[in-house]
Write a structure and sequence with these properties.
The complex is a heterodimer. Chain A is mainly β. Chain A is built from 6 helices and 21 strands. The chains are: A mainly beta, B alpha+beta.
């Protein structure tokens, strides 16, 4: 049995051993890197995505991002249940970062001294050093800068992985996000033709494990560390108390519903850093779906539901054909309705009566 | 809050109200062992009232017809929602199933986490212990009692024959415009104040069951009235900040609420008393006074 203190700090020591490898932390000094153009991106909170070109202009460049880690309590449902959240840039999920293939993604990660825990970042898109996790472990009061080459296209998860038992705990406390590496000439459909989107939304799905008291009510804790022992017990049962889009019941409904118009093509990026999920757009489809998320593979067509493996991000391209209020759900409907994984699209436009018509309204059953 | 969608009609309510408290109970000489609930008697009044249910005409959804209704006999209704402690007495006595409420609610809060079936079980038990006839109010009676707190039907503001989505979208926006934050924790009785009739806590964070069934009505194309209607009494009308329809066995507002929009925070109820004999006569007499 380890104490909470050992759990919190022991893990940091384990990961620090990896970080001690000097060759990997040395700056890259190749002339071709130094000569590359740099672009500094200001991140925006999901479901929105920072402005970006779908087709790259010019050659590869170094794209700079800054993310500040925030540990803070967040209310995650209508009952006021509180998660001692750990976040990248204050949001769950962390912001979506978009680059093009062969660009270099350069991230400055800041862990303010107002936080209490060590954190890092593991990019599934990156090669080596535990996805960068081995080079980015920082204590409160520290910052670190990592650069990696975006060699593979697709949508990829990033998450905190500070070692041992800290890894799943940080992830189910909210520390995950995604990046999208676009082909330099943009997306292609199954026939290799250009595929463009008018809008992009980023949905991060989380499974949370909030402990309950003896009456069955959710407990709250002074700090993340105070809740650690209880939360791990719930986590080990593998049954989440909440399955949510963008960190909170209602984060993508009502006033926060995503908006589109009939005829608009929307790219929906969906990540789940920990657990499998199965997005479904009720009353719509996935015209082109990169279920595994990787653009080197042709997209699947006309999907009804798509499968996002835990620890991956996928995307679906859809052109809205009919106006209305669409629900976008995890089609484990228990998780969608009872545990929270529901988002809405409000789509304005003209009704296509050829696609659907109520031939006869409800009426008493004919008796003759 | 955009009132235009709420049909908070200029509730033309001219009801006279008489509070009936414990002191009056002594006059009536009730023989109950259970402390009798404080009630208010509404003697008269009229409202313009959107009838509950769903209405179709020529295959298209219609706004709920607004009818002028008269209160044609005295209505005696509980001043407060049935309390959690009152309901617990019924549970202890074996008359009611426990409420589905596990939170630490204030001791003087209304009962929450109760279904239509639970509310009726309580009315039966309460009638037994008090020797009076208690029952859920009809939706119309509830509207009379709620007076200016009555909100009524939540519906789309547009009805485009060629584009049914207009109705869904405008209805959704209307709910969003309400900008109502969930307020889940029940509060002590009286916390939501009194309406103009001296009745407490209407349209707070506890929705109230009524005895009115959900009904789908097809109106005659020529405007001559009802062409057909189908009742579904497995679903009853709840009133509160907005009207809701829920299955009889549902006790959690969130799980039985609207597919889109803000569901009720909590489900509870209050009862009306049917007077008979001389008591009723006396109340009718009071009306004249």
């Amino acid at each position: 049995m380890i104490t909470r203190r050992e759990a919190l700090f022991g893990a940091a020591i384990g990961a620090a051993a990896v970080a001690a490898l000097p060759a990997f932390s040395a700056p890259v000094t190749k002339a071709d890197i130094r000569g590359l153009a740099r672009e500094k991106i200001k991140l925006v909170a999901p479901p929105f995505v920072h402005p970006h070109d779908q087709v790259a202009k010019g050659g590869p460049k170094i794209v700079e991002f800054t993310i500040t880690i925030e540990e803070k309590p967040l209310v995650i449902d209508a009952d006021g249940t509180t998660l001692n959240a750990m976040t990248y840039n204050g949001s769950i999920p962390g912001p979506l970062m978009v680059v093009h293939q062969d660009d270099y993604l350069e991230l400055t990660l800041i862990n303010p001294d107002t936080n209490s825990l060590a954190h890092n970042i593991d990019f599934h898109a990156a090669t080596g050093a535990l996805g960068g996790g081995g080079l980015t472990l920082i204590n409160p009061g520290e910052q670190v800068t990592l650069r990696f080459k975006a060699t593979r296209t697709g949508t990829f998860v990033y998450h905190c992985a500070p070692g041992g038992a800290m890894i799943p705990w940080h992830v189910v406390s909210g520390m995950s996000g995604a990046i999208m590496v676009l082909p330099r000439d943009g997306l292609r459909n199954d026939k290799g033709e250009p595929a463009r989107y008018d809008k992009i939304f980023y949905i991060g799905e989380n499974d949370f494990y909030i402990p309950r008291d003896e009456k069955g009510n959710f407990k709250s804790y002074e700090s993340a560390g105070d809740g650690y022992d209880d939360i791990v017990k719930v986590m080990r049962g593998l049954i989440p108390t909440h399955v949510l889009f963008n960190g909170k019941v209602g984060s993508l409904t009502g006033d926060n519903a995503m908006k589109a118009k009939v005829g608009e093509t929307v790219l929906i990026v969906h990540s789940q850093a920990n657990r499998d999920t199965r997005p479904h757009l009720i009353g719509g489809h996935g015209d082109y779906v990169w279920e595994q998320g990787k653009f080197a593979n042709p997209p699947a067509k006309d999907l009804e539901t798509w499968f996002i493996r835990g620890g991956s991000a996928g995307s679906a391209l859809y052109t809205f054909l009919q106006p209305g209020v669409y629900a976008y759900v995890n089609h484990n409907l228990i998780e969608a309705v009872e545990l929270g994984a529901t988002a809405h699209f409000m789509v304005e436009g003209e009704w296509d009566a050829d696609l659907m018509t109520q031939v006869e309204a409800p009426k008493p059953i004919a008796t003759n | 809050m955009s009132l235009f969608i709420l049909k908070v009609l200029p509730v033309a309510l001219a009801a006279a109200a008489v509070p009936v408290g414990l002191s009056l109970e002594a006059v009536f000489g009730d023989r109950q062992s259970h402390p009798i609930a404080m009630t208010v008697v509404l003697l008269s009044g009229s409202i313009i009232y959107p009838t509950p249910g769903e209405f179709l005409k020529e295959g298209r959804p219609q706004g709920n017809p607004r009818l002028e209704r008269q209160l044609d006999r005295p209505l005696e209704i509980m001043a407060y929602q049935v309390g959690a402690a009152d309901y617990a007495d019924c549970v202890s006595a074996g008359g009611c199933q426990p409420a589905q409420e596990t939170r630490a609610i204030p001791s003087k809060a209304p009962v929450t986490g109760v279904s239509y079936l639970d509310a009726n079980a309580y009315a039966r038990w309460y009638s037994e212990v008090t020797g009076d006839q208690w029952r859920l109010p009809s939706d119309e009676e509830w509207a009379f009692a709620a007076a200016e707190r009555f909100a009524g039907e939540f519906e789309g503001v547009e009805n485009d024959a060629t584009n049914p989505a207009r109705r869904w979208l405008t209805s959704y926006k209307a709910e969003v415009d309400l900008n109502r934050k969930p307020d889940p924790m029940p509060k002590s009785r009286g916390s939501f104040g009194f309406n103009s009739l001296g009745l407490a806590d209407f349209s707070g964070n506890v929705w109230e069951w009524t005895s009115t069934c959900y009904v789908r009505t097809t109106l005659a194309a020529d405007g001559s009235g009802v062409a057909s209607s189908v009742d579904n009494c497995g679903v009853h009308v709840l009133e509160g900040l907005h009207r809701a329809y829920m299955s009889n066995f549902v006790s959690d507002g969130k799980s039985g609420g609207c597919a889109v929009g803000t569901p009720p925070d909590n489900l509870g109820f209050r009862l009306v008393r049917d007077r008979s004999g001389w008591a009723s006569d006396l109340l009718s007499h009071l009306r004249i006074i």
